């Protein structure tokens, strides 16, 4: 997904992602507690941005006990503050950050049909937005750049038709 990287950038998944997230949090002087690990694991189990409520449910199910929504919220906030998770504002939901060891103003592409979000990083674009804001005397903290629309899968009618034929023809 890299477009304008001038450094060694890698998006991670699976165990490598969890290890990178732990490194990032510990590197920031925070502890990777069992509960935090559970919240991160729940976050990565979703294939689309998850609301804090969904994450709370997933952690509760995984732990076999009801965990407090408040503590999940606090952990999600901590994750966002430390580049371990991202908040997709227009969806009011969270995603694990695929590059916890690398700071970017991620640009989210949110599909209105399936709800999935992919992301691209374009530091030149986000730097320009920061510059434009700064030029007015504004102090930008973080540009929020999200594009709503339809993902490649949902936008391609042929692919969608193939899928429906496939599922109709598959007997289980
Ligand atoms: Zn990077
Ligand atoms: Zn990114
Ligand atoms: Zn889609």
From TrEMBL:
<feature type="binding site">
    <location>
        <position position="105"/>
    </location>
    <ligand>
        <name>Fe cation</name>
    </ligand>
</feature>
<dbReference type="InterPro" id="IPR043135">
    <property type="entry name" value="Fur_C"/>
</dbReference>
<keyword id="KW-0479">Metal-binding</keyword>
<dbReference type="GO" id="GO:0003700">
    <property type="term" value="F:DNA-binding transcription factor activity"/>
</dbReference>
<dbReference type="InterPro" id="IPR036390">
    <property type="entry name" value="WH_DNA-bd_sf"/>
</dbReference>
<keyword id="KW-0408">Iron</keyword>
<dbReference type="Pfam" id="PF01475">
    <property type="entry name" value="FUR"/>
</dbReference>
<feature type="binding site">
    <location>
        <position position="151"/>
    </location>
    <ligand>
        <name>Zn(2+)</name>
    </ligand>
</feature>
<dbReference type="InterPro" id="IPR036388">
    <property type="entry name" value="WH-like_DNA-bd_sf"/>
</dbReference>
<keyword id="KW-0804">Transcription</keyword>
<protein>
    <submittedName>
        <fullName>Transcriptional repressor</fullName>
    </submittedName>
</protein>
<keyword id="KW-0238">DNA-binding</keyword>
<feature type="binding site">
    <location>
        <position position="154"/>
    </location>
    <ligand>
        <name>Zn(2+)</name>
    </ligand>
</feature>
<keyword id="KW-0805">Transcription regulation</keyword>
<keyword id="KW-0862">Zinc</keyword>
<dbReference type="GO" id="GO:1900376">
    <property type="term" value="P:regulation of secondary metabolite biosynthetic process"/>
</dbReference>
<dbReference type="GO" id="GO:0000976">
    <property type="term" value="F:transcription cis-regulatory region binding"/>
</dbReference>
<dbReference type="GO" id="GO:0045892">
    <property type="term" value="P:negative regulation of DNA-templated transcription"/>
</dbReference>
<dbReference type="GO" id="GO:0008270">
    <property type="term" value="F:zinc ion binding"/>
</dbReference>
<dbReference type="InterPro" id="IPR002481">
    <property type="entry name" value="FUR"/>
</dbReference>
<dbReference type="GO" id="GO:0005829">
    <property type="term" value="C:cytosol"/>
</dbReference>
<keyword id="KW-0678">Repressor</keyword>
<feature type="binding site">
    <location>
        <position position="114"/>
    </location>
    <ligand>
        <name>Zn(2+)</name>
    </ligand>
</feature>
<feature type="binding site">
    <location>
        <position position="111"/>
    </location>
    <ligand>
        <name>Zn(2+)</name>
    </ligand>
</feature>
<comment type="similarity">
    <text>Belongs to the Fur family.</text>
</comment>
